[in-house]
Amino acid sequence: MAGDIVAHYELDYDESGRITKGYLQLELVRTREIVRRHLPRGPLRVLDVGGGTGVHARWLAEEGHEVLLVDLVPRHVQAARALAEEGLNVTAELGDARQLDLPDESFDAALLLGPLYHLTERADRVSALREAGRVVKRGGPVFGAAISRFASLFDGLARGFLFDPAFREVVERDLAEGQHRNPERRPGWFTTAYFHHPDELLREAADARLTTVEILGVEGLCGWLAQLTHRWEDPESREVILDSLRAVESEPSLRGLSAHLLLVARRPE
Fold first, then answer.
1. CB contact at 8 A, 68 and 93
2. 14 against 182, higher pLDDT
3. How far apart are CA 112 and CA 137, in angstroms?
4. Distance between CA 222 and CA 161 in Å, rounded?
């Protein structure tokens, strides 16, 4: 599993620009605003597990926080370390979300905005959540991103992949088991992953001894509407898009419509 994932990010896909350009910023902007709502007053020491090339570490550091980024992919760690050369308070190291080489209660908050959908076994996801809770101070927030069980179905409709019989087989397994596979490494079909039903996040957090505050849909219907791309560049239209998402972000019947779900939890006091 780890080999597939590292190969995807090292060889097949450049993560650095995935959510920083054009309408793709929707995921970044929404994730950032939800995280900001729940962070304690700073400056804080924040752990960014599976933080990729440092997209979230960057804005956290720019807002005055100290960030340690831990990632499985050497290319990501190297890119994240370059943030320090820009004067940002970011350090980065290789590591495994399931077993962090970090002391108990050494951070004010923890982000897992990637590991939960690259850990295909439930026990591993619970371990990652439990580890994040262990290294966060009592009462501190833990944020966990997951890919929706229905993401491939909607993405396949939006981008036309669903009309390929091979992709329909991928979607059938996603819907039945949550297990997403792309053994031929077809471009745009993602890599080895687990896609969550929204209710599963609640149970996994509980098993990790975390208290769930809320589970939110990140992009909602807007994430699938390519016709909104030109609207995103206009500040007033962008706010209309974001307001429409905020209006339904916590509606249980609509959370699975989002490509990404965001768990907001806390380590018990």
1. yes
2. 182
3. 16
4. 19
